[in-house]
Predict the structure.
Amino acid sequence: MFVQIMSIVRNNAYLANVTIYANVFSDKAMHELAKSCKRLEMLHIDGYKNELLVTDKGVTALALGCQHLTKLTLGNCK
């Protein structure tokens, strides 16, 4: 799942609004989003059936890398 999501975001650097429902999502994925989606404005991530493995480090990387981000929603986080 991670590889598929990252393939999409790497090839769409102009994404502004993203919703991701994933069984596994971690700080590594947040770092990749921060590097690839500099124009991101809104992000919703839901762990769906499992909990997200996102920590303060992942959220900080996203905030620093995506300076246009105005809304972040994380569902089913640990």
The helical segments are 2-10, 27-36, 56-65.
